[in-house]
Predict the 3D structure of the following.
Amino acid sequence: MADIALQATAITKYFHDPVTMPVLKNITMEVMKGEFISIVGKSGCGKSTLLYVLSTMDRDYEGTLDINGVRATGQSLNDLARMRNSSIGFVFQFHYLLPDFSCLKNVMIPGLRLGKFPYKEIEARAYEKLKMFGVEDQALKKANKLSGGQQQRVAIARALINDPTIIMGDEPTGNLDSKNTSIVFDLFQKLTKELGQTIITVTHDEDFAQRSDRIIEMADGEIKSHGK
């Protein structure tokens, strides 16, 4: 158990509008620490819904979810928020940066919200994350002045500010060209290989998925293959 970053057991979820129907069906899976996995499947198969359950942002499900050996299922909204802020970094298809804030301030926001470190230390940590991704020279620019690839790198830096053990991505390269997709993949691989962080992504990009450590294939709300 010590090497398991995330364990989902018998996760089942229903949508109720306009009629009740299962969207996730008895999902059981394990993700090991330092593993880079891609969840793939056709649109509507439930992969993004599963990611939101795994990230604790969706609490309306049956079954159990454990993150770093701690039971997330059944925790209060406040406790789950603390767990997310400290243990999970999330990267979306769209960067969701605050356009009128500097890149540095955007990266700092989750750290300020967690309140674990003083302001100056959070600022220094944010700058180091930007430097890690080669955008430190953009630190004081407003986010809306950057290219799409730069914005997504800033978004990844933001996801890392609290040193989460798990990074989750919902189509993190969906809006990027092939060059920037490759840059983001290399960054993710560096995080797993050099820093031992766990990455779980949902993607339609077959090349991206094939380069990850393991592919989980979904269809009709079920896992059809857990990969090697």
